[in-house]
């Protein structure tokens, strides 16, 4: 009987829209380098790395705005935002210009 009640509870949770936290992955890759990499995940403080090791990857799990910004790009670099295995944003720079990937999810 407890199993049936648990199954009904799980079904109701699915029907009412209770969803699992998203799996968010930020990736920076390529043959270049960057002087400064700044990234922000929802609910977290902005973090800045100087002359970071590349490739770079970080994970997060909250809805909101995700941003990765590269300044002082030398060579070709690509930033990507991947949510639940689906790439939602990608940007590439080979000019030395600043590079930004930005994506917002409804909270």
Automatic annotation (TrEMBL):
Keywords: Signal. This is Lipoprotein. The lineage of its organism: Bacteria, Bacillati, Actinomycetota, Actinomycetes, Pseudonocardiales. It comes from the Bacteria. InterPro entries: MmpS_C. Residues 1-20 form the signal peptide.
């Amino acid at each position: 009987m407890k199993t049936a009640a648990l199954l009904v509870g799980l079904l109701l949770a699915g029907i009412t829209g209770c969803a699992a936290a998203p799996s968010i992955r930020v990736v920076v890759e390529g043959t270049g380098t960057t002087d400064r990499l700044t990234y922000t995940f929802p609910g977290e403080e902005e973090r800045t790395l100087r002359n970071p090791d590349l490739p770079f990857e970080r994970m997060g799990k909250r809805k909101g705005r995700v941003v990765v910004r590269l300044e002082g790009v030398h060579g070709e670099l690509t930033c990507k935002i991947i949510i639940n295995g689906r790439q939602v944003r990608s940007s590439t720079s080979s000019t030395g210009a600043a590079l930004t990937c930005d994506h917002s999810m409804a909270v």
